[in-house]
Amino acid sequence: MERENIRIYATTMPRQFFKKFSPSADTIKEQKCLGFLGKHLHSPMLWHLNRRSVSMAFAVGLFMMWIPFPPQMLFAALLAILLCANLPISVALVWITNPITIPPMFYFAYKVGALILGHQPVPMKFELTWEWLTTSLALSWQPFLLGLFIVAVISSALGYFGIQLLWRIHIMRRFNARKLRRQKQEKIDD
Length: 190
Known about the structure:
The chain is mainly α.
């Protein structure tokens, strides 16, 4: 009986929270860059809000946000479809990287890569231009890409396991609160 109640809570847990903050199915389906996916976007598995799909969505989104190419959203959608992760959350998490957040994030990734390779980090002035990519990045591409990969993997793992843990904690708290209410009600009835 207790195990069954936990399953019921597991399916209803923070759905309201994630529904409130994730883009709707129609918003995702209207994205022109995702139009070629056609019927794949209509798979119900991509829209479920359960612990597995949300955890996978965080893993996908937090990994893909570190990809330094403009079609991050497209890559996140493809990976979400492949892994049956929640599509709106996967795509929305990619938006963490934007023109304001990219410079410090990418410089951090570069410093991580330089530290691992034993290079001395060189101060860079970040610009989102092709010229900057071909000149400045050409000199430091190895630590930059290594740092991006390492930070992406760590972010992805932390997102996945963090959501798993938070989901479980929330379920147990709600279950224990319900159990206490029942015990109080039984004392009142006695």
